[in-house]
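User: I'm preparing a small set of examples for a lab meeting where we compare how different chains pack in three dimensions. I only have the primary sequence for this one, and I'd like the structure in token form so I can line it up with the others. Please keep the answer compact; I'll paste it straight into my notes.
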Amino acid sequence: MKKGWWITLGIVLLLLGVFVWYKYFFVFGEGVKSGYLNYAIKKGYVFKTYEGKLIQEGFGRGKAGGITSYEFEFSVSDPEVFKQLETNSGKSFDLHYKEYKGALPWRGNTRYVVDKVVNMK
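Assistant: Understood. Below is the structure token output for the 121-residue chain.
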């Protein structure tokens, strides 16, 4: 009876570990987004994280058929990348990002984490 309990507990902990890894640490997607940097800020109550918003060019159809803008909200992992963004607000950027399934409080408020600037104009 005792051995079966420990095996069950081990399996549950293993499954929980796999779920946490997949949700918060597995890189679901990578890519590059281009647009004009709207803002770059450092904010947070306990964990101060770097956040930003990129406005992409173009028009799209909204839910009711209206025109919408393309906004890309992201977090920044590297303080040096954030400094480059902060000092060049309003310029056009090509940003490389990683997409996760969930956000961690110390990594940022979004699932998208920018790790480098590919190009700046």
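A couple of notes for your slides: Residues 60 and 68 are 5 Å apart (CA to CA). The chain has a mean pLDDT of 90.

User: Perfect, thanks.
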